[in-house]
Amino acid sequence: MKQSFLFTKTRRNAPTDEVSRNARMLIRGGFIHKEMAGVYSYLPLGLRVLNKITEIIREEMNALGGQEVYLSALQDREVWEKTGRWDERAVDSWFKTELKNGAETGLAFTHEEPLTALMRGHISSYRDLPKYPYQFQVKFRNETRARSGIIRGREFLMKDLYSFSRDETEHRVFYEKTKKAYHTIFARIGLGEKTVLTFASGGSFSKYSHEFQSLCAAGEDTIHLCGKCRIAVNNEIISEHPVCPQCGNDKLAPEKAVEVGNIFTLGTKFSDALNLKYRDEDGKEVSVFMGSYGIGPGRAIGVAVELFADEKGIMWPNSIAPFVVHLVSLASSAKVKKEADALYEKLQKEDIEVLYDDRDARAGEKFADADLIGIPLRAVVSEKTPAGKVEIKERISETARIVSHAELLEMLSGK
């Protein structure tokens, strides 16, 4: 993509009412637009990052046997009343509205109820199980406070997968597979070294659930981390679980963290309430055993910015960067412009994701924008670069070097 074609512009300053580092950087870089507190629109660069994360998650969910769906955000009040979660004394984060016919509806904050109800039309026998539908869906939560940028919003994208199993034994097998898949996902998007499995309260579903918490100074959660095996305990249950659940170490260090994923055992809470049953081999009617597995792609973006940025801007992990290389033309002559244009065409021909800064702007402005946007590799064509060569510099490095166009193409062809 040519940068002159990109309708978004970088900004010297973020909105004065934006306090979170992730949102300030993303707004200045032209990745997102702030609509109101806790509500952000994704612009072309931001959407590319979001799509890369969702595709990584999609690949791992499909590998587990997941089947992608897309459910309605508008919710039927009657379905939620069956589980008691329409009542705002049970769930205080609903966005609710009235339809023209006078019926009350809500915008989904999660999808256990509607999907359980939907599956009644598709599960009737033990032969129909297990099943693992999942989706990427916008959720709405009427948060009292929304001051952490895209880490905690009132409208946000979530990947939620729900498992429908014959019994707890079958459920546990899938639950453990999902743990491994989540570790793989966070490693692939560049958060693996900072993200730890964390024991947390199971709420009304089970004694414990598991969170995937990214260690981050901007985090709203406190976890207690075992330095030996990298397992953590959420602050809310540390009094009942004061030692490491894996190795028994009693020296757990408090750390600030952001929850980027979670997995819950739901049991038969929803299947009982919504009458989702199947007939087993003996013809006996049995409630389906369920689980829930969530990841926040937008939260992952926010955490990546919090962790991988400096005073100049963002430093994207390779796997989720909006482009692989940022080609910068410092064209003071027609010859340099022609050479930069030719290299851009070569990169495009090889299907290498390239943002080409072909703008009529000063070198300092172009370099500042490249640092702010944070693409992993910058490639500069100028009067100083010999014909057929380019100056490259990694965003995480201060050292530049000269390589040939062929060397650059070879370097990037595997990314």
Structural description of this entry:
- With 415 residues, the protein is α+β, with helices and mostly antiparallel strands.
- It folds into 2 domains: 21-310, Bira Bifunctional Protein, Domain 2 (BirA Bifunctional Protein, domain 2), CATH 3.30.930.10; 323-413, Anticodon-binding domain (Rossmann fold).
- The protein contains 10 helices and 23 strands.
- It has helices at residues 21-28, 44-63, 77-81, 112-119, 168-188, 269-273, 297-307, 334-349, 363-373, 405-413; strands at residues 32-36, 39-42, 67-68, 74-76, 95-98, 104-107, 133-140, 155-165, 195-201, 208-215, 221-226, 231-234, 252-267, 277-279, 285-287, 289-295, 309-310, 313-314, 325-329, 354-357, 377-381, 389-394, 400-404.
- It has a 5-stranded mixed β-barrel with strand order 9-10-13-11-12. A 5-stranded mixed β-sheet has the order 20-19-21-22-23, sandwiched between helices.
- The protein is elongated, with a radius of gyration of 24 Å.
Question: Per CATH, what is the topology of the largest domain?
Answer: BirA Bifunctional Protein, domain 2
Radius of gyration: 24 Å
Q: Helical percent range?
A: 25-40%
* Beta-strand share of residues: 25-35%
Structural class: alpha+beta
Going across the biggest sheet, name each strand in turn.
9-10-13-11-12
Unreliable stretches, pLDDT < 50, 5 or more residues? Answer: none
Question: How many domains in all?
Answer: 2
The CATH homologous superfamily of the largest domain is termed Bira Bifunctional Protein, Domain 2
Please describe the biggest sheet, giving its number of strands, its sense, and whether it closes into a barrel.
Answer: 5 strands, mixed, barrel
**Quaternary organisation:** single chain
General shape: elongated
Instruction: State the total count of DSSP E strands.
Output: 23
| Second CATH tier, the architecture of the largest domain | 2-Layer Sandwich
Mean pLDDT over all positions: 95
Number of contiguous helices: 10
CATH class designation of the largest domain: Alpha Beta
First-residue to last-residue Cα separation: 17 Å
